């Protein structure tokens, strides 16, 4: 009895020793021959917010592969795969001795290889070891290859869970051509995602890895159908699927077609791939439905434009800052349109699209209100003297009209008062990207700086986010970065000003009483870039149209080229068209011109102080006076004079009996206001008893050689014809301008070609006059 116990003890100790030795040897072999996972090439899949692939980048070998896990694959496919390949997958340790014995017997009986007895784990081991699918490693005997697969299978089971091993199969199994993984196979051979398969489709994908080339659906649909039906019969035999489902599945044809790889948002995907070159899956905030529809709108719209032009559209939910559509070019594959150039990030001149921020920051600074008197007049004698898009001038205009009509001179006037350097720094702090040579200057208001569509949309999010701009987010990993740009009140006023009907839809707006889309257009110098940016509901969108090489597109500008596309994009978004509530800091007050102050403040103070009245939006209960530019502070617009008993200007020593205040308009706008409001009509004439009074009214400047709105005929063949340049009044040297081009101080100009012209003259004090005329050609 004792001897038997001793023998049992020795046997137990020997077993423990063998287990220890086997474990030690196995551990040593595991370290000496690690699984070949680390160096495997990675395919990158860029997906939308729901995980739908947008674009796939092949790995270093040109293999298309979508990473997959069991939870993201159809249950029908998992049932077909395990039912056909490895029913005991979740129970065996990597190898199935019964299956291997059965396969050996079948092969001996048939005299050829008809079954391999491989488990899913062994197939994964074969894929990882050889990298050639079911083909085995070259130069090795079949028995050696099988032995290596068995050892690797045990090694896999030691390192990974069953679901992780299954995930490796779902990702790397060969499916014909350069397709690996069930998700890539589903998109390539079925045109759908692997989480939405029918019984027939699941059975087809389950059998394809057995002979990927032989069963390729696009080349051998008949073979593929027969192999699929074999799987269906197996599923029926095991009772996994019902006979009705099997019979219905056999009726589905195998489509002999290879669907193209997904190619939505190609430039956004390329951008993200560059940022994360080794990532397997890059999830974005893009919405596939919005992305595809935006790309379709852009493509259809560009079909109406010349083939060298391209376009870009960016759509962002400004509440969350998530980019939902990113169309960087009109056609990614077009050589003529240079579709490979991402115009969302390309630096271009923004035209007039920065003007809303000039006025918004000036509102916060207390320089203006919504109906401040701004001057759309020539800046003769100034270092920066731009013109308007329409080549003419409007004289005194409200801020609202200046912004809506995108007038250049008022924007430059306000930016000069605010400061170009401050303007640049505030926008850059809010997330804008700029590129220009030199220092910030007044040209920024009109597009004299480089920026991009992404930067503009970033700034415009502030109009929908109570003045706080936010960096756009493409991926869930992108942090929420917000920067203050302007106060909620200023943002509300600017958005309210920009909320107006689109051209041609004014009657619709009048009927509805509501126009929720706030929009602004821009055109860069030489018609190179057409822009449109809009805010509606929870969305901010931007559009660029032009030539990527920077060539001009004559006759195309923001209002006619980019705005219609923006309107289509905004109309397609499911966003409520609600009006943003008015902030408590904003109020409506009556204001007067020329002072720009509130009606109550100027009532009774000076004659002519309320020559024109407006209902203005004001901020923080402050009504700033008119910006007079170089003419001095606003107080200079109200002059207090001594008058005699007859109302004539006098001095106390020569008959002056009382003081009287007079409201004057800025000198610069005198040629544009009615004669009754000009200084010569407002200021009383000098008393004859006071001959030494300082002159208050300089002689008016008037063009007299050409009448306003005249039509001048030009006869062909009569060369050398000239038009006289003559003006009365003014002070000092006169300078002439034809359509903004200086003519100097000559007395005549050559007869211009037929067309519309504006002739202007300015004196040394800055006063000016201008007329329009037309030249026509008559037959001899």
Word description of this protein:
- The protein has 780 residues and is an alpha+beta fold.
- The protein has 22 helices and 27 strands.
- The strands form ten sheets. It has a five-stranded antiparallel beta sheet, sandwiched between helices.
- β23 and β24 (741-744) form a beta hairpin.
- The termini are far apart.
Topology, please?
Blueprint: H1 2-32, E1 44-47, E2 53-57, E3 64-65, H2 75-85, H3 97-110, H4 120-130, H5 142-159, H6 162-172, E4 179-180, H7 182-190, H8 199-207, H9 221-237, H10 243-250, H11 266-275, E5 281-283, H12 288-302, E6 310-317, E7 322-327, H13 355-365, E8 373-376, E9 395-398, H14 399-404, H15 408-418, H16 420-429, H17 453-464, E10 468-470, E11 482-484, H18 488-498, H19 506-512, E12 518-523, E13 529-536, E14 539-546, H20 558-572, E15 586-594, H21 599-602, E16 610-619, E17 638-643, E18 658-663, H22 679-682, E19 702-703, E20 710-714, E21 722-724, E22 727-728, E23 735-738, E24 741-744, E25 748-750, E26 755-762, E27 768-777
Parallel strand pairs: 1-5, 3-4, 20-27
Antiparallel strand pairs: 1-2, 6-7, 6-14, 8-9, 10-11, 12-13, 13-14, 15-16, 17-18, 19-22, 21-25, 23-24, 23-26, 26-27
Helix pairs in contact: 2-8, 4-5, 4-6, 8-9, 9-10, 12-20, 13-15, 13-18
């Amino acid at each position: 009895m004792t001897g038997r116990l001793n023998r049992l003890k020795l046997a137990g100790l020997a077993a423990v020793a063998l287990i220890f030795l086997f474990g030690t040897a196995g551990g040593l072999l595991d370290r000496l021959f690690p699984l070949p996972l680390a160096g495997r090439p990675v395919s990158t899949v860029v997906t939308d917010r729901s995980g739908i692939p947008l674009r796939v980048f092949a790995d270093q070998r040109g293999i298309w592969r979508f990473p997959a896990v069991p939870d993201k694959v159809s249950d029908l496919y998992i049932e077909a795969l395990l039912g056909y390949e490895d029913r005991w997958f979740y129970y065996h340790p990597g190898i199935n001795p019964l299956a291997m014995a059965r396969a050996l017997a079948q092969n001996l009986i048939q005299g050829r290889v008809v079954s391999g007895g491989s488990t899913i784990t062994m197939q994964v081991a074969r894929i990882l070891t050889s990298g050639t699918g079911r083909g085995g490693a070259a130069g090795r005997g079949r028995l050696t290859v099988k032995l290596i697969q068995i050892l690797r299978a045990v090694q896999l089971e030691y390192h990974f869970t069953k679901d992780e091993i299954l995930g490796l199969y779902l990702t790397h199994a060969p499916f014909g051509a350069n397709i690996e993984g069930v998700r890539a196979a589903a998109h390539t051979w079925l045109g759908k995602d692997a989480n939405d398969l029918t019984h027939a489709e699941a059975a087809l994908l389950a059998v394809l890895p057995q002979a990927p080339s032989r069963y390729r659906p696009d080349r051998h649909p008949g073979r593929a159908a027969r192999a699929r039906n074999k799987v269906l019969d197996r599923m029926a035999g095991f009772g996994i699927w019902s006979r009705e489902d099997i019979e219905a599945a056999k009726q589905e044809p195998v489509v002999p077609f290879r669907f193209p790889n997904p190619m939505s948002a190609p430039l956004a995907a390329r951008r993200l791939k560059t940022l994360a070159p080794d990532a397997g899956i890059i999830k974005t905030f893009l919405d596939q439905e919005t992305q595809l529809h935006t790309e379709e709108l852009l493509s259809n719209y560009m079909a109406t434009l010349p083939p060298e032009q391209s376009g870009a559209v960016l759509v962002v939910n400004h509440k969350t800052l998530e980019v939902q559509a990113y169309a960087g070019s009109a056609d990614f594959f077009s050589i003529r349109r240079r579709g490979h150039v991402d115009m969302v990030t390309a630096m271009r001149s923004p035209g007039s699209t920065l003007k809303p921020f000039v006025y918004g920051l000036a509102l916060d600074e207390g320089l203006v209100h919504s109906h401040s008197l701004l001057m759309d007049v020539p800046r003769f004698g100034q270092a920066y003297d731009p013109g308007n898009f329409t080549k003419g001038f409007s004289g005194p205009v409200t801020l609202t009209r200046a912004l809506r009509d995108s007038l250049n001179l008022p924007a430059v006037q306000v930016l000069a008062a605010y400061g170009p350097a401050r303007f640049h720094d505030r926008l850059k702090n809010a997330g804008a990207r700029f590129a220009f040579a030199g220092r910030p200057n007044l040209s920024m208001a009109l597009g004299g700086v480089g920026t991009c569509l992404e930067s503009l949309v970033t700034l415009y999010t502030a109009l929908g986010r109570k003045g706080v701009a936010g960096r756009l987010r493409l991926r869930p990993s992108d942090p929420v970065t917000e920067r203050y740009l302007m106060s909620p009140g200023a943002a509300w006023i600017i958005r309210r000003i920009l909320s107006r009907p689109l051209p041609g839809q004014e009657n619709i707006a009048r009927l509805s009483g509501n126009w929720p889309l706030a929009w602004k257009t821009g055109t860069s110098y030489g018609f190179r870039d057409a822009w449109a940016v809009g805010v509606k509901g929870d969305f901010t969108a931007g559009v660029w149209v032009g030539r990527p090489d920077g060539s001009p597109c004559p006759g195309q500008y923001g209002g006619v080229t980019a705005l219609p596309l923006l309107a289509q994009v905004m109309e397609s978004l499911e966003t409520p068209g609600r009006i943003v509530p008015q902030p408590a800091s904003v109020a409506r007050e009556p204001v007067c011109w020329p002072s720009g102050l509130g009606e109550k403040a100027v009532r009774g103070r000076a004659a002519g102080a309320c020559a024109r009245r407006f209902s203005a939006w004001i901020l923080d209960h402050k009504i700033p006076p008119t910006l007079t530019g170089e003419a001095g502070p606003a107080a200079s617009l109200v002059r207090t004079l001594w008058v005699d008993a007859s109302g004539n200007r006098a001095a106390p020593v020569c008959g002056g009996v009382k003081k009287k205040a007079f409201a004057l308009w800025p000198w610069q706008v005198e040629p544009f206001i009615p004669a009754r409001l000009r200084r010569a009509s407002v200021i009383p004439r000098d008393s004859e008893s006071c001959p030494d009074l300082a002159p208050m009214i300089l002689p008016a400047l008037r063009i007299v050689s050409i009448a306003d709105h005249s039509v001048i005929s030009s006869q062909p063949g009569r060369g050398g014809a000239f038009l006289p340049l003559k003006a009365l009044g003014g002070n000092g040297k006169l300078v002439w301008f034809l359509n903004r081009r200086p003519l100097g101080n000559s007395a005549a100009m050559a007869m211009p070609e037929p067309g519309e012209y504006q002739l202007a003259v300015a004196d040394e004090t800055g006063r000016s006059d201008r007329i329009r005329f037309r030249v026509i050609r008559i037959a001899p």
